[in-house]
Design brief:
Number of strands: 10
Order of helices and strands: EHEEHEHEHEHEHEHEHEH
Structural class: alpha/beta
Distance between the termini: 16 Å
Helix content: 25-40%
Strand content: 15-25%
Oligomer: single chain
CATH topology: TIM Barrel
CATH architecture: Alpha-Beta Barrel
Number of domains: 1
Largest sheet: 8 strands, parallel, barrel
Length: 248
């Protein structure tokens, strides 16, 4: 089994996270999938940014939910990373889906609703995916168990993953009861029994955020279904190495 390499917020060690340059680079490097984050603006436009606040990754201040999309577009989302990326903007989900549609990339959209439980975010994002005919290539994920349940009940035809960093001996059972079709876990939760329990239930298990070779190799050995990484180039190289060694 080949563990999928999922570019976490794009190739985010090499370009400003969650911007078009980071996504373009992940694609060029050969990632299997892209993971990104969605929040809602004041005028209910789904936009791609990890934090609820714009301070860390732009030259602005304030919460996403207090900006209109038009106002967000005025912010510089690249200079904080490097002057080379000055002028990069916060991307709308529409723009991103238009870009990804013709490419052979899978998509993981994390709904950022564990701190601010945005009204109807599940349906707003789902409808966009339906519009671009990307339901079958996408998994939605969230740390918010109520949102996993809502997504499953409202839109049973899309895959949804529970994200977690908490130890729980009944994790697989609990995730399944919510309606999750996959588990996305922090590396420290990874062990053979979790992988076996998930695979027994036909639930893919993917691990975040894996940036070191030794951890990548362990994920490949345990046959996790995917790893989220900021360095997809290193992960692809390590996966090749792993499969070459398996043959000898």
């Amino acid at each position: 089994m080949k563990t999928k390499i999922i570019a976490h917020r794009g190739a985010s060690r090499l370009a400003p996270e969650n911007t078009m340059p980071a996504f373009e680079l992940a694609y060029k490097l050969g990632a299997d999938a892209i993971e990104t984050d969605v929040q809602l603006t004041k005028d209910n436009v789904p936009v791609i940014i990890h934090d609820e606040h714009v301070r860390r990754t732009t030259n602005g201040k304030g919460y996403i939910k207090n900006f209109t999309f038009q106002a967000l577009q005025q912010l510089d989302a690249g200079s904080w990373f490097s002057q080379k990326y000055a002028g990069a903007t916060i991307v709308s989900l529409d723009e991103f889906l238009q870009w990804i549609k013709p490419k052979s990339l899978y998509l993981n959209i994390e709904l950022k609703n564990n701190k601010i439980d945005y009204t109807n975010i599940e349906t707003i994002v789902y409808e966009k995916l339906r519009q671009y005919q990307l339901i079958n290539r996408t998994i939605l994920s969230t740390f918010n168990p109520a949102s996993v349940k809502r997504t499953h009940e409202l839109h049973p035809d899309i895959n949804v993953a529970l994200l977690t960093s908490r130890r729980n001996r009944y994790l697989v059972r609990d995730a399944k009861q919510l309606g999750a079709t996959a588990l996305h876990v922090k590396y420290r939760l990874l062990n053979q029994s979790l992988i076996d329990a998930c695979h027994e239930e036909n639930m893919p298990v993917r691990v975040y955020t894996i940036n070191r070779s030794i951890r990548m190799q362990r994920c490949f050995t345990l046959e996790s279904d995917g790893i989220f990484t900021d360095v997809p180039d290193l992960a692809i190289e390590q996966r090749k190495l792993f499969h070459t060694e398996q043959k000898h």
